[in-house]
Amino acid sequence: MTIHVPIVQENEIEFTAIRAQGAGGQNVNKVSSAVHLRFDIRASSLPEPVKERLLGLKDQRVTKDGEVIIKAQTHRSQEKNKEEALQRLQDLVASVSILPRVRRPTKPTRSSQRKRLDTKNLRGQIKALRGKTPL
Q1: What digits encode the pLDDT tens for the residues 3-38?
Q2: DSSP class of residue 70?
Q3: How far is CA 57 from CA 30, 60, 94, 123, in A?
Q4: Does the pTM exceed 0.70?
């Protein structure tokens, strides 16, 4: 069985270069190496069920307006940060494109129910014998 994961189109993604946070000396204040990725879910060419599951995610990267915003700043080069943000978006889309299996509730077998009740009964008898004996 092959699973089809929809691929996000490059023209539907908007990249913005921003300054990265954290250590890096003077370079971090001069170079815009971090990348903001913006992806509008509603305006995308993704299949409708995938869009609905993406919009229904309880993820801080998905805004109320239906946009995915990913910030990548781990690498020193802007190009690598851009690739990482794109990969993280693809992973997010892939995670919702696969439907989770429907759980079918099961019942315990008759023998397991009987065994449970028998052991409960036995424990009750043992505890009843611990009491004081009547005179």
Answers
A1: 567 778 888 888 888 888 776 667 667 778 889 999
A2: E
A3: 36, 9, 13, 48
A4: no
pLDDT at residue 42, as a whole number? 86
Q: Cα–Cα distance between 11 and 84 in angstroms, integer?
A: 17
Report the chain's mean pLDDT, rounded to a whole number: 86
Are 18 and 37 in contact, with CB atoms under 8 Å apart?
no
Q: What percent of the chain lies above the pLDDT cut of 90?
A: 29
Tokens of 16: 């913005």
Which strands make up the sheet holding 67-72, listed edge to edge? 13-18, 34-40, 67-72
> What does the domain layout of the chain look like in residue ranges?
10-97
Q: Which amino acid is at 76?
A: R
Structure tokens at 86: 């794109």
The domain over range 10-97 is classified in CATH as 3.30.160.20: yes
